[in-house]
């Protein structure tokens, strides 16, 4: 019987699909190691952005932070004004190779969500 | 500072004890796999980080901002990124973010606010 953890992981279809695909491609690596590597890469990306660093990957794209200044917001229910502090939102700019590949094959493949 | 592919391979090498060549390979394949999926029209969700999705844009008249000339922009497919709630929350409490003007893009509004 699958453990509760594996059932929950099954919901993250894509990360686990990615791990499986990579493990098939790299038969000399254990599935567990591929999983750890993928998590390690994602964790590193999170850390980088959380500490205000840019990420730049040639052919893939770059991640940077955009600053949203503090503003007065409004509670849509009550109409009351609320002071919102500044925040950072990550921004992804696709690299040239990714942009071109995606656009060039758009005639061949439908978008699947 | 800007992180590159080499930094990710270095992290896999340091933290997991992969040999250098394997660490570089896994980072390369990871990125290639994401590109392949996107190329084939599939969106890619990396939980805890974000989701890459595709969007078909219709053509529209554009403008060369330098010359003011009108140029048609053809219909195209683009990749968009939506940050995961987890990373969003992490960034929300990031008082620790250094104000390195090289790293943070300020929109016009923000610049006015800073001055």
Give a topology summary.
The complex is a heterodimer of chains A (113) and B (115).
Chain A: H1 4-9, H2 13-25, H3 31-50, E1 54-57, E2 61-68, E3 71-74, E4 81-84, E5 87-94, H4 96-104
Antiparallel strand pairs in A: 1-2, 2-5, 3-4
Chain B: E1 2-3, H1 5-16, H2 20-39, E2 44-46, E3 50-57, E4 60-63, E5 70-73, E6 76-83, H3 85-92, E7 104-106, H4 108-114
Antiparallel strand pairs in B: 2-3, 3-6, 4-5
Helix pairs in contact in B: 1-2
Short descriptors:
heterodimer; A: 113 residues; alpha+beta; 3-stranded antiparallel beta sheet; two-stranded antiparallel sheet; 5 strands; disordered N terminus; B: 115 residues; HU Protein, Chain A; two-stranded antiparallel ribbon; 7 strands; 28% strand; elongated; disordered C terminus
Structural description of this entry:
The complex is a heterodimer of chains A (113) and B (115). Chain A is an alpha+beta fold. Helix content of chain A is 42%, strand content 25%. Chain A is built from four helices and five strands, in the order H-H-H-E-E-E-E-E-H. In chain A, strand 1 (54-57) and strand 2 (61-68) form a beta hairpin. In chain A, helix 2 crosses helix 3 (31-50). The longest helix of chain A has 20 residues, at 31-50. The two termini of chain A are 30 Å apart. Chain B is α+β, with helices and mostly antiparallel strands and 115 residues long. Chain B has a single domain, classed as HU Protein, Chain A (Irregular). Chain B contains four helices and seven strands, in the order E-H-H-E-E-E-E-E-H-E-H. Chain B has a three-stranded antiparallel sheet with strand order 2-3-6. In chain B, a hairpin with a 3-residue loop joins strand 2 and strand 3. In chain B, helix 1 packs across helix 2. The interface between A and B is large, with 64 and 69 residues. Strand 2 (61-68) of chain A pairs parallel with strand 7 of chain B, so a sheet runs across the interface.
């Amino acid at each position: 019987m699958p453990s509760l953890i594996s059932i929950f992981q099954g919901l993250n279809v894509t990360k686990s699909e990615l791990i499986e695909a990579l493990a098939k491609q790299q038969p000399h690596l254990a599935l567990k190691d591929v999983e750890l590597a993928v998590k390690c890469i994602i964790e590193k990306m999170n850390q980088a952005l959380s500490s205000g660093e840019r990420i730049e990957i040639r052919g893939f794209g770059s991640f940077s932070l955009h600053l949203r200044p503090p503003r007065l917001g409004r509670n849509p229910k009550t109409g009351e004004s609320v002071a919102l502090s500044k925040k950072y939102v990550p921004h992804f700019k696709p690299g040239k190779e990714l942009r071109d590949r995606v656009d060039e094959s758009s005639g061949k493949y439908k978008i699947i969500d | 500072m800007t992180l590159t592919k080499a930094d990710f391979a270095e992290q896999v090498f340091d933290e997991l004890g992969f040999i250098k060549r394997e660490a570089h390979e896994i980072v390369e394949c990871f990125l290639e796999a994401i590109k392949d999926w996107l190329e084939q029209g599939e969106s890619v969700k990396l939980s805890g980080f974000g989701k890459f999705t595709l969007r078909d844009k219709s053509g529209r008249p554009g403008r060369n901002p330098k010359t003011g000339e009108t140029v048609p922009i053809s219909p195209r497919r683009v990749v968009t990124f939506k940050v995961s709630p987890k990373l969003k929350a992490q960034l929300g409490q990031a008082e620790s973010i250094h104000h390195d003007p090289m790293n943070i893009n300020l929109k016009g509004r923000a610049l006015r606010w800073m001055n």
